[in-house]
Amino acid sequence: xxxxxxxxGQQALFIPDxxxxxxxxxxxxxxxxxxxxxxxxxxxxxxQDIFGPTIILEKGNEVTxxxxxxxxxxxxxxxxxxxxxxxxxxxxxTIIPAGENWSPxxxxxxxxxxxxxxxxxxxxxxxxxxxxxxxxIIVKDDQELQLELPRTxxxxxxxxxxxxxxxxxxxxxxxxxxxxxxxxxxxxxxxxLDVPAQVVRLRLxxxxxxxxxxxxxQEDMMFYQIASDGGLLNNPVPLTRLRLVPGERxxxxxxxxxxxxxSIELLSYGSELQNGIYGAERPSFMPFxxxxxxxxNLLNGTDFKILNLNVGPPVLNPVTxxxxxxxxxxxxxxxxxxxxxxxxxxxKQMGPTSMVNGPFVMNGQSFDLDFINIEIPLNNTEVWxxxxxxxxxxxxxxxxxxFYILDINGATPPTNMQGxxxxxxxxxxxxxxxxxxxxxxxxxxxxxxxxHCHMLSHEDDGMMGQxxxxxxxxxxxNPADIQLPVYxxxxxxxxxxxxxxxxxxxxxxxxxxxxxHRRSSNLVEKINMTDYISGVYFLNITNLxxxxxxxxxxx
Length: 555
Ligand code: C2O
Ligand code: CU
Known about the structure:
This protein is mostly beta strands. It has a domain at 480-554: Immunoglobulin-like (Sandwich). Helix content is 3%, strand content 44%. A hairpin with a 4-residue loop joins strand 39 (535-542) and strand 40 (547-554). CU-O-CU linkage is lined by residues 78, 80, 118, 120, 247, 397, 399, 450, 452, 454. CU-O-CU linkage binds at residues 78, 80, 118, 120, 247, 397, 399, 450, 452, 454.
């Protein structure tokens, strides 16, 4: 294991500057930071050496963000969690070449909450985020303004991006490694934060490339989660632990009223994480399925410090109570769903190490920039059924929308996970998550949105797919030509599938189990379902251009 030669003492948490108004400028540039005495680490950041300013947006306002790429390599810039058109979303198709600019403009449609931005260049996301490219987005709205919550940025409302990073013997940042054994908060190693003796709000982001944190304060001090990824929860949820997976955000309130002059630690209780989660003692249940150097990383399976909070005098007009309720956000109802999609995670090739190291694929397909995996009719309300047939848990993220978790391994999610979400951890070894969401804006048949694992090395290795939202009323395809190619439905014995081109056909039981997988280059494929048990099945038909799912009932 590598030991950095000399670390500075504690340093104040860096509170990034804010950018607000209708036109903002971000410049991605090279930087350097003296993390270790007398030695410079090469980094990248937006408008600064590492990390970036906090973008403040107001719901309903128009904003233009001028992004300039001052690196000598390409990049993209994605607004993680924001509901924007696919052209403005900054996915892997929207490349900003070295030395060039990109200026998306959009209306802020999101609810008050904590979002973030980071590059999304295919196969380079992990490297660019690891080197420092990321920043916060805070959205404000009227509903949130009416609540008695701490909201003075940097005084009683603090953004805290937590990232584990690995440094080589030359003190340079390492990419694609499991040696991420040092914790940075907003780009600061070994940070402390001066906080006032009152109720404070912490906006927590796990910006790590892989590691899951199990956050808690010393002595199991109670705190209250008030927001998940996409905005406020209906009620504050009292917690002593908060598991935060890569890409996830949470806003919490902490009552420090009686703790003036004391110091309290924010820790990650890694010893309590279940095996099979990156950050637990072991990355899988299977003794052979491990990650190179994972066991050498002392953070795995142990409790470690994230940040010290030093409590000083209260600021003017302090908030001193935790509100009893927040908003009235209504989740979508499962009975309103008009489609179910099954997304199964598997290793690309079977084998004891690939079960935990990948590369991983979704529905058998590795990411391909030229392949649209899913077409979603505009205004669809859909249930996405994620099935993880690998040995490690994956944080699944979808662009464009916020979703509500229906169940995790069949059980109702904990209260703090019942609000608006855009990342969810899918448990390993056959684990399942079902969520419901709605695609009610931004039809675009050209630029797709992404869904992917937010462990950035998995994403870069192809654990990502893309979807387009299509408006049937403006689509260039004639709806009369669209005839269901799978019949009869319900079916008793022989199912006929009409195919336009050579395709792969997968049949899943509604439980998510893959029953049959075949490839066909016939124009008409007959499938004998006589021996199938009665129930609901999903047929996933994939050709070179797209993938469709059909629901069929076997009598
Ligand atoms: Cu945070 Cu597709 O990304
Ligand atoms: Cu993954």
